[in-house]
Amino acid sequence: MGSVTNKFLTLDKAVSLIKSNSSITFSGFAHSVTPLAFIREMIRQKIKNLHLIGIGEAWAVDMLAGANMLSKVSLSNFMFEGYGRCKNFSRRVENGSIEIEDFSHFAQISRFAASAIGVPFLPIRSLLGTDVESSNHGKTSKIECPFTNETLLAVAAVKPDYAVIHAHRADRNGNVQLFGNSTSIDEQIRGSKTVFVTVEEIVAEEEISKYSEVNTLPAFLVDYVVEVPYGAHPTGMYRYYSEDFDHIDYYMDACKTEEGFNHYLKEFIFDLNNQWDYLQKVGIKKLHQLKADPYLGYQLGNKLVEED
Amino acid sequence: MQYSTEELMIVAASKQLKNEEVVFVGTGLPMLACLVAKATHAPNLYMLFESGIIDPKPVHLPKGVGDFKLLKGATKSTSLNYVLSLLQGGFIDVGFLGAAEVDQYGNINTTFIGGTYENPKLRLPGSGGANDIASNAKRTLVIMPHQKRKFKKNLSYLTTPGHLQGGESRYEAGLKGGGPSRIITDKAILDFEPTSKKMRVNALHPGVTIEEVQELTEFELVIPADIPTTLTPTDTELTLIRNIDKEGVYINKK
User: Fold this and answer.
1) What are the structural domain ranges in chain A?
2) Residue A199 to residue A167: CA distance in whole angstroms
3) Coil, strand or helix at A125
4) What is the pLDDT of residue A160?
5) Which string of DSSP letters, residue by residue, matches A143-201?
6) What is the pLDDT of residues A136-155, one digit of tens each?
7) What contacts 24+ positions apart, CB below 8 Å, involve B218-227?
8) A294, B106, B124, B128: which has the fewest Cβ within 10 Å?
9) Residue A51 pairs with which residues in a beta bridge?
């Protein structure tokens, strides 16, 4: 674990610590809280042969699958809310280049939760009687309860090499705060070996404790922190900025074909040096338009600044 | 007032929900069905979302279960693990499901179509919370289009349990929840014959014949002697739906 003095890294340095042939999980639910600046840098650094262990991070899996960086994916569900199937991911599964293991959301989160509390499995009541019970290379097993003789399903703990989370803010010790619903983050960070958190901003320690009722990841669970404003773009961050649906539409159109997505990669990753170049390309006007209304926590798209 | 088939389906689904029930909701028509129920006969309906949001009162219609608009007025914003644990704890009365394929016992496939699991012809999104909802909710409601390629004799893959092989098989597999109670399509409402657990026609939408519904179904449906016609939406219900989705997010898309 990184000590406080070396906990804070630049984005390219943090990403360089991710090794090829390792396992990884990402925050992200629908079009929100996905560490996409980190993922863009991973693609730039051409990290290969990853095993993604996911719950709902559709953006992470689709970008990495499209960039040919995944060899195996354990999943419960990947779809782009409002748009449908993840085209890059589906293409790679259909041509056999990604090996898959299916679970349900509760089975997969229970595997992280088992790891988080230091037990080799947890018993659940899902998957029984279905094909999902046997689509996961032996990571589930029917058991009889030693106390009641009921049939339950044991799901094996999972411990990815890395968890990469995007959150709202952190202090100088690495305490991290996340506003809104926490989706799967609490289990992902406690269930992974090394935890990277990218944050929108670094704030004073007193600011974190002032809002201790907000969902907080204590510093001792966090190995590395990187400050990356708009690090989730084009996905959104509750109370900071909304999803960029213009960009999302552009992406969905691009990933319909392999060629289209390669062009997207060139345009938004390979032709740019870093996140600052990326934000320049997105443009300050667009970023201002996405800024959340402080009362609502999101943007209705009624800012006075006109679209170009 | 004239109504669309989607509006008929939303109202039909909303009538399946009772006041003070706890409902696990998905994106699209289920969300509208719940909002209609809350605005009419079930004001104290509790809505839960797998993103970790409980009992919201959104002031703008959310585009999905991950939309921040759902956080407005929520009584609890928590985690995926917490809300799915509520399912397994037996706290959820009703869960909504969609389906790419369904069989005569209400089992659902949302994993792949054609080819093999390792090399599918068409890879679909996977279970998500659906298997957990179907395993543990007291009952489930399925909303899907009525097409022959979707109402299948044999599924490519059984993602989400319905009544499994019928009869007592669901109970014998160790599942605690009650399984599917209704399937609402663009042609009919279906339920399940209580003993065999085979899919049965419950109501036909106005203008739809039983022959048409059977023709769009690969397996043989149980057809009772008297089949009522689905209630048509009232003007009040239609005005309500169009007001909730005034921007055309889910229905009457612009």
Assistant:
1) 4-104+159-290, 119-156
2) 5
3) coil
4) 98
5) EE-TTT--EEEEEE----SEEEEEEEEE-TT--EEE-S--BTHHHHHHTSSEEEEEEEE
6) 889 999 999 999 999 999 99
7) B218/B148, B218/B151, B218/B152, B218/B153, B219/B103, B219/B104, B219/B151, B219/B152, B219/B153, B220/B104, B221/B104, B221/B190, B222/B193, B222/B196, B222/B198, B224/B200, B227/B201, B227/B202, B227/B203
8) A294
9) A23, A72
On whether the CB atoms of residues A128 and A81 are closer than 8 A, the answer is no
Task: Write out the H or E segment, with its range, that includes residue B213.
Answer: helix B210-215
Q: Which residues 6+ apart lie within 8 Å of B243 measured at CB?
A: none
Query: How far is it, in rounded angstroms, from Cα B153 to Cα B109?
Result: 12
The token pair that represents B2 in the structure block? 């004239």
Mutation target to probe the B interface, by most B beta carbons within 10 A, among A32, A34, A59, A77 is: A77
Nearest-by-CA chain A residue for B169: A129
Residue located via tokens 């298997």: B131
How far the first Cα of chain B sits from its last, in Å, is 20
Q: Is B203 exposed, middle or buried (0-12, 13-18, 19+ CB in 10 A)?
A: middle
Query: Does B101 fall in a domain?
Result: yes
What is the reported pTM?
0.96
Q: Tell me whether residues B174 and A79 touch, CB distance under 8 A.
A: no
Catalytic residue numbers of B read 50
* Token reading at A10: 């630049």
Q: Are B201 and B210 in contact (CB under 8 A)?
A: yes
- B contacts of A128 (beta carbons < 8 Å): 135, 161, 173-175
What is the reported pLDDT for A186?
96
- Structural domain includes residue B251: no
CATH of A4-104+159-290, one of 3.20.20.80, 2.30.42.10, 3.40.50.1820, 3.40.1080.10: 3.40.1080.10
> Which residues constitute the domain of residue B39?
5-244
- Note whether residue B250 is domain-resident: no
Using the structure block, give the residue that is written with the tokens 């094909």. A131
d(CA B236, CA B188): 22
Domain count of the fold of chain B: 1
Distance CA B35, CA B47 (A): 9
Query: Which of B100, B101, B97 has the alpha carbon at shortest distance from B135?
Result: B97
Q: Are A73 and A45 in contact (CB under 8 A)?
A: no
How do residues B80-120 score in pLDDT, each as one tens digit? 999 999 999 999 999 999 999 999 999 999 999 999 999 99
The answer to whether B174 contacts A125, with C-beta atoms less than 8 Å apart, is yes
Cα dist from A240 to A165, A186, A237, B77, whole Å: 16, 21, 5, 17
Task: List pLDDT tens digits, range B154-180.
Answer: 999 999 999 999 999 999 999 999 999
**Structural tokens at position A122:** 């947890």
Q: ipTM of the assembly?
A: 0.96
Give the Å distances, CA to CA, from A113 to A120, A131, B28, B116. Answer: 10, 23, 30, 31
A76 interface with B at CB cutoff 8 Å: yes
Q: Domain of B34: which CATH number?
A: 3.40.1080.10
B82 domain residue, yes or no: yes
∠ CA(A175), CA(B49), CA(A214), 5° rounding? 20
